[in-house]
Write a structure and sequence with these properties.
Length: 72
């Protein structure tokens, strides 16, 4: 609904796609920052190394899906 209200009056598909890209780019940047922070602050604690590894791998996968893969 937020996207619809932003593009409803635009007079070209270019303007609509540019607006949509701008809306989702801001959300994407925020998500990438949150994921990077989660990875940097990840601690093993009392969980098994397997559980810790799966958490780290899951965060890395989400970053890759956001087109921001981490360096190996």
């Amino acid at each position: 609904e937020v996207v619809h209200s932003q593009v409803v009056g635009l007079d070209s598909s270019y303007k609509a796609w540019t607006t949509i890209k701008r809306i989702y780019a801001a959300e994407s940047r925020a998500k990438v920052q949150q994921l990077k922070s989660a990875l940097q602050n990840l601690k093993k604690g009392i969980e098994s190394i397997t559980a810790y590894f799966h958490k780290a791998k899951g965060i890395a996968h989400q970053l890759a899906m956001a087109s921001k893969p981490i360096d190996k």
